[in-house]
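Sorry to interrupt, but I need a hand with the structure work. I would like you to pick a protein and set down its sequence and fold. Please put the record directly below this note.
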Amino acid sequence: MKDKIVLVTGANRGLGRAFVEKILELKPSKIYCAARDIDSLKGIKTMSDIIETIELDIASKESIVKAVANIEKLDVLINNAGVNSNARLFDDSFFDIEVNLKGTSNLTQALFEKLKNSKGTVINVTSVLALINLPVLGNYCVSKSALHSFTQALRAEFGLFGGEVYEVLPGPIETRMTEGSQMPKTSPQDIVDATLESMKKRVYEVYPDGFAQMVKKRLQEEPQKLIEEFAMSLQG
């Protein structure tokens, strides 16, 4: 990250803020911090004079066009912004897909030429639930699974010009999105540390915590049993 120009979406709290705090230690030349509510970034703005805050709703193409117009060059895009509507499969809600998949795709497309010019890097934050559906969060899992596939295609596209694409597939994180959940959760700082360490080793799929690593292992060893256990979430 040294001397790089970085954009972090969803930078106002949780994992996004943790990315900003850690990247500041690595001496970038500039960090664009984006969030839907620009007022929520006031505290982050005071952390360093290399931080520039941007109002950005990735679910709005108009907002994306306006935000991208303020970015002349870019080396690293961290697609962290996302939602979890807690909707089940037929709850008549496509909000998770609109934000997590379409929003991320639209923003990345809008910045593609800038990233291509710098042989840049993209970090997509998905979820280990991209690999297996937890039906009580059916629509969220569908959106993250689609984003996982999008990330694989994007990695191939970036490979044509020497760019890199990483995917972070965490389990539950200690953020507002998981408030009230009784599952063991990992701190945002630990997720960021694991991500940056994986990038040093060119490990493109990052399983940054114990839960994510457990799910990956069980999907290899006993996939049907894990699917059946996750299906029981509808009975809770």
